[in-house]
Design goal:
The chain has 17 helices and 26 strands. By secondary structure, the protein is α/β, with parallel strands linked by helices. The strands form seven sheets. The protein has a seven-stranded mixed beta sheet, with helices on one face. A hairpin with a 7-residue loop joins strand 14 and strand 15.
C-alpha cells in the first residue's frame, strides 16, 4: 500500500497559513504533510470541484465516560430505526440518535470530516471508564478534561491561597487521569448541591469551605498559567440556563483579564457552550437574548474564547448531560414535551463522585414553537454572527445538550446562508424575532471563516500546533468536500458537509464518498505542566495524609494505568 497521498486541483482553505480558497497541491507522507512527494510513489486524489480543509476539531463534545453511558441507559427510546447502523465488513453495528454508541461515534464524526474531539468533563475517579470508551472509538484522536471546580483538594488549596501546591495538584491529576486541561463546572455550585443549594453569583459562599466561585476561577487560572499548559482554563459558568445569567457570565469573563499567559498562546479563559449563559431578563416570562452583551465584551477583549452551544430542533428529544447537577435538577422540573406526547423531562439522574464533582442527566425536547427554545436557538447563532474574530469562537452544540454533533452541517447552513436561517426564524415562536437581533444580522460566514470555527481556531485555542492547518509538518488529517464556492446555497452547504468526499486520518483514507473505508485506532492526547519537584512532593504528602477521609478506594489504585491508554501523546508545557 502506498504511504503517500497527493491531493490535486482542490480549493484549499487553511486560515492559519493565510490560504483562502487557493488551488494548491497538498502532499502527505508517513502521516505528515510534507513539501513534496514523488507522484509515482503516491496515491493521487483529483479534488476538482471540491474544497480541501484540515480535519475537523471539536473543542467540546460529550462522547465518553460514565455520564455519557448513563445517558445511553436512561434512553432506551433513543434508537430511532433510521439511526440504527448495521455491521459491515469494515464497521461494527451501533445505535443512538442523541447519544450514539462508541464505535459509531467515531464513524459519524469521520463522515463529517472530523478527526479530533475533546471530551470536556471527566470525573477523576471515573477516568478509566472514559479511556475505555476512547479505546472503542475508532479513527479519532481524543482528549479529556478532568473536573476541578468543586474538588475538595482544590477548595482546600484555594482557601489557603497556595497556588503553587494547587498547580502541583492539577499537574498530578493530569498525569493520574491522562487528562489534557483544567475544566471548571459551576464552580462552588456543585459542591453546594451536596447540601441542596447552589450559588447565584461569583461572590457567593461555598458552604464549609469559606471560598467563592471567584476565588476558585482566579486560583485555577493562575495555576494554569504557572504550569504553562497548552490550553487555558475551560469554564462552564455559574447560573447556566437561568434568565439573567449574562451578568454573571461577564463577571466571570473579567476575572482573567489581568492574567498574562506564560506561553505563546494569547488566551487565559475559554467559556464553553456560551449560549446557555447568554440569557437576559429576570424570569422565563421576560426571557430574552443577552448575546449582544457577550459579543460586545468579547470583541473588546482578546484574553478569552468561547464556543456556541447551538440548539438544534429535531423530531426527537436530545439527552442533556452535564457536571452541573443543580441545573439538571432545575431542567428536570421544566420538562419539555416531545412530539409523541411523552414528557422526557420527568426522567432525571443525579450523580455525585465522592469529594470531586457531580453530574446530572435529563432528556429534553427543543421545540421551535416554544418561545424559550426559539430564543435559545437564536442566541447561539447571534453569538456566532456577532463575535467578529472567528478565532475567538467555535461551533459546538455542546453535544448532546443542544443537539447531536451530526447536526453540524445544518448549523453551517445557517451561518453561511442568511436565507436559510431566516426561513427557519419565520417558523419559530415570534419571541425569537422580538427578543433577539438575529433577523437583523446580514453576516454570512465565508468558507475560510467556517474552517476557522471548526478547525483552525479550535486547534489554536487548544494549543494543538500539529493540526488545524495544512502546513509542512502538520499531522496528515484532511477533509475534502464536494462543494463549489461559486454556486453554493444553504442546501448545497448542508449536503456537502454531511458526508465528506474524503476524510484522511494520519495520511490514511478513512472515508471515501461518505463511506467508512478504514478504522484505525486514534491517539489520546494528554498534557503535563512545569512544576517544582519540592512543591509536587509536598502536595502528594498532603493528599496522602487526607486520602482515607476523602476516598473509598486505595491511593495506589487511583491513577489510570498505561494499559488503558495504549496510544498516548503527551504535550509538555509550552
Amino acid at each position: 500500500m502506498k504511504d503517500s497521498i497527493i491531493i490535486k486541483n482542490g480549493l484549499v482553505y487553511d486560515p492559519l497559513n493565510g490560504i483562502d480558497g487557493e488551488k494548491k497541491e497538498i502532499h502527505v507522507k508517513n502521516g505528515v504533510v510534507v513539501e513534496k512527494v514523488d507522484e509515482g510513489d503516491a496515491k493521487v486524489i483529483d479534488a476538482t470541484g471540491m474544497i480541501v480543509m484540515p480535519g475537523g476539531v471539536d473543542i467540546h463534545t460529550h462522547v465518553a465516560g460514565t455520564k455519557v453511558n448513563v445517558g445511553r441507559s436512561l434512553r432506551p427510546d433513543d434508537k430511532p430505526p433510521e439511526w440504527n447502523e448495521p455491521r459491515t465488513k469494515i464497521t461494527r453495528s451501533g445505535t443512538g440518535f442523541a447519544v450514539p454508541s462508541t464505535w459509531i461515534t467515531g464513524y459519524r464524526y469521520a463522515k463529517l470530516g472530523f478527526t479530533t474531539v475533546v471530551e470536556p468533563a471527566m470525573p477523576l475517579l471515573e477516568a478509566r471508564h472514559t479511556h475505555e470508551e476512547f479505546n472503542d472509538m475508532p479513527i479519532l484522536d481524543k482528549m479529556a478534561m478532568p473536573l476541578f471546580g468543586n474538588n475538595w483538594y482544590v477548595l482546600d488549596y484555594v482557601r489557603e491561597g497556595n497556588i503553587e501546591k494547587l498547580a502541583a495538584y492539577v499537574n498530578w491529576i493530569l498525569k493520574a487521569t491522562k487528562g489534557y486541561a483544567i475544566k471548571i463546572v459551576n464552580p462552588g455550585g456543585v459542591e453546594n448541591w451536596a447540601w441542596g443549594k447552589n450559588v447565584e453569583s461569583i461572590n457567593d459562599d461555598v458552604y464549609h469551605w469559606g471560598v467563592t466561585p471567584k476565588q476558585i476561577v482566579e486560583s485555577l487560572a493562575k495555576a494554569n498559567e504557572m504550569l504553562e499548559l497548552p490550553h487555558s482554563i475551560h469554564v462552564h459558568c455559574n447560573n447556566l440556563g437561568h434568565p439573567g445569567n449574562v451578568k454573571h457570565s461577564i463577571d466571570t469573563f473579567k476575572l482573567c483579564e489581568p492574567i498574562e499567559p506564560k506561553t505563546d498562546r494569547n488566551r487565559t479563559l475559554h467559556i464553553t457552550h456560551c449560549q446557555f449563559n447568554a440569557y437576559a431578563g429576570n424570569s422565563w416570562a421576560n426571557f430574552e437574548s443577552g448575546a449582544a452583551e457577550v459579543a460586545e465584551y468579547v470583541n473588546a477583549h482578546k484574553h478569552m474564547s468561547l464556543d456556541a452551544g447551538q440548539v438544534i430542533f429535531s423530531k426527537y428529544a436530545t439527552t442533556t448531560m452535564t457536571g452541573d447537577g443543580p441545573w439538571e435538577f432545575a431542567l428536570h422540573h421544566l420538562g419539555g414535551t416531545s412530539p409523541w406526547g411523552a414528557k422526557p423531562g420527568v426522567k432525571w439522574v443525579n450523580g455525585q463522585v465522592e469529594g470531586e464533582s457531580g453530574s446530572g442527566v435529563v432528556p429534553y425536547f427543543f421545540d421551535k414553537k416554544v418561545g424559550v427554545n426559539a430564543v435559545q436557538w437564536a442566541i447561539g447563532l447571534e453569538l456566532m454572527l456577532l463575535v467578529k474574530d472567528p478565532f475567538q469562537i467555535s461551533v459546538t452544540t455542546d453535544h448532546p445538550n443542544g443537539g447531536p454533533f451530526t447536526a453540524y452541517p445544518t448549523v453551517y447552513k445557517w451561518l453561511m446562508d442568511k436565507k436559510s436561517r431566516n426561513e427557519l426564524l419565520k417558523e419559530c415562536s415570534p419571541k425569537a424575532t422580538t427578543t433577539t437581533h438575529l433577523g437583523d444580522l446580514d453576516r454570512e460566514y465565508t468558507l475560510g471563516e467556517l474552517c476557522t470555527v471548526t478547525r483552525a481556531g479550535n486547534a489554536k485555542t487548544l494549543g494543538l500546533k500539529d493540526r488545524g492547518h495544512l502546513g509542512v509538518g502538520a499531522i496528515g488529517d484532511l477533509a475534502i468536500y464536494k462543494l463549489d464556492p461559486k454556486t453554493m446555497n444553504g442546501d448545497a452547504i448542508q449536503k456537502a458537509f454531511t458526508l465528506a468526499a474524503y476524510t484522511i486520518k494520519d495520511g490514511q483514507i478513512v472515508v471515501k464518498d461518505g463511506e467508512i473505508t478504514a478504522t484505525p485506532k486514534g491517539t489520546t492526547i494528554c498534557a503535563e505542566g512545569k512544576i517544582k519537584l519540592s512543591a509536587y512532593e509536598d502536595m502528594l504528602e498532603d493528599v496522602k495524609a487526607k486520602w482515607r477521609d476523602h476516598y473509598s478506594i486505595n491511593f495506589n489504585n487511583y491513577a489510570v494505568q498505561e494499559a488503558y491508554v495504549p496510544r498516548c501523546k503527551v504535550i509538555n508545557g509550552t
